[in-house]
Structure to design on (159 residues):
């Protein structure tokens, strides 16, 4: 889950508040407020309530519906390390890394675990982009040997 950073900024400015004033009012650092506005990170529940109250909106108005574009985005927004997710899935870190980086598809048995871990419906996980399709030689075009003579050796630079 993410926070509507742009909306947060608009509401803050509409009330004539600086990031520091918001931070002081709800008991956090100015850099935290900046993170919420620029990266969409969600504050802890008590601060989120205080923030909504300060800005005179409902908590739900500040929260963006989950619209993940990658497993990495889900993991980082949940504040987890790859090692933590891999451990929860019962796999090696390299296995999880391969899936997160798109080298492998998300295994079906992971869907319910990741769904609970990231608080996102299973179908949304299934719709995340899979591994890129490998190109064929025909798509890549012919190979070119630049800087090689006909025997495959590099030629001497002319003087």
């Amino acid at each position: 889950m993410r926070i509507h950073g742009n909306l947060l900024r608009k509401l803050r400015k509409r009330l004539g508040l600086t990031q520091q004033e918001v931070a002081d009012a709800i008991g956090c650092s100015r850099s935290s407020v900046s993170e919420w506005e620029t990266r969409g990170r969600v504050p802890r529940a008590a601060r989120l309530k205080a923030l909504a109250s300060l800005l005179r909106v409902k908590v739900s108005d500040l929260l963006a519906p989950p619209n993940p574009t990658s497993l990495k985005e889900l993991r980082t927004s949940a504040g987890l390390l790859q090692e933590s997710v891999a451990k929860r899935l019962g796999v090696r870190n390299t296995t999880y890394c391969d899936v997160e980086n798109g080298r492998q598809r998300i295994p079906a048995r992971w869907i319910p675990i990741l769904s609970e871990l990231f608080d996102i419906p299973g179908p949304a996980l299934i719709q995340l982009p899979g591994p890129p399709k490998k190109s064929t030689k025909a798509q890549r075009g012919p190979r070119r040997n630049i800087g090689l003579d006909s025997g495959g050796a590099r030629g001497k630079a002319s003087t």
Q: What stands out?
A: Strands lie at 2-3, 63-64. The first helix runs from residue 5 to 14. The chain has two domains: 2-64, 71-126.
